[in-house]
Write a structure and sequence with these properties.
The protein is α+β, with helices and mostly antiparallel strands. It contains four helices and six strands; from the N terminus they run βββαβααββα. It has a single domain, classed as Glutaredoxin. It has a four-stranded mixed beta sheet with strand order 4-3-5-6, sandwiched between helices. A two-stranded antiparallel sheet has the order 1-2. The chain starts with 7 loop residues before the first strand and ends with a helix.
């Protein structure tokens, strides 16, 4: 089973067709509204605006699994993201990323790109998975990993044909 075979829903609960993103570079992120890293939404939006015409999409999945930092519904999170950070990239359903009820997409991403010391657990919100045009995970970035290092890896993935 590939990334594109996963069942996903947008913030309104409507089926989201991941297959439509085949051939694009993706950045899949578990996001939250009340996290110290929440301002990264602005940076993620800037990346999306800068590179979307080159075949890049950010997918944000609200997650309340860490310190109850995203207690609102996915729809309310979307409104928050739009109003506070100008988010236009796709915001998805609210998910769990760890445990027996983790979303299958995150199970796959964690298996393809384990964290430090081989752990598959996601330690906090704003963990980012960079996925290449072939649907394979290129890199996993922790919540503190953003800015230049992320942008350079993203540009490298965009340049690969």
């Amino acid at each position: 089973m590939t990334l594109y075979d996963q069942d996903c829903y947008n913030h309104m609960g409507q089926r989201f067709n991941l297959r439509a993103l085949q051939g694009q570079v993706l950045l899949v992120v578990n996001v939250a509204s009340r996290c110290g890293y929440t301002p990264q939404l602005k940076e993620l939006e800037m990346l999306y605006q800068r590179y979307r015409d080159r075949g890049f999409t950010v997918l944000g999945f609200p997650c309340d699994q860490f310190g109850k930092q995203s207690p609102e519904s996915a729809e309310a999170f979307c409104t928050f993201g739009e109003q506070q950070y100008g988010v236009t990239f796709p915001l998805m359903e609210k998910v769990r990323v760890n445990g027996g009820d983790a979303h299958p997409l995150f199970v796959l991403l964690k298996r393809e790109a384990p964290g430090m010391l081989g752990t598959t657990m996601i330690k906090w919100n704003f963990t980012k998975f960079l996925v290449g045009r072939d649907g394979k995970v290129i890199a996993r970035f922790g919540p503190r990993d953003h800015g230049r290092s992320l942008r350079l890896r993203l540009e490298g993935a965009l340049d690969e044909i």
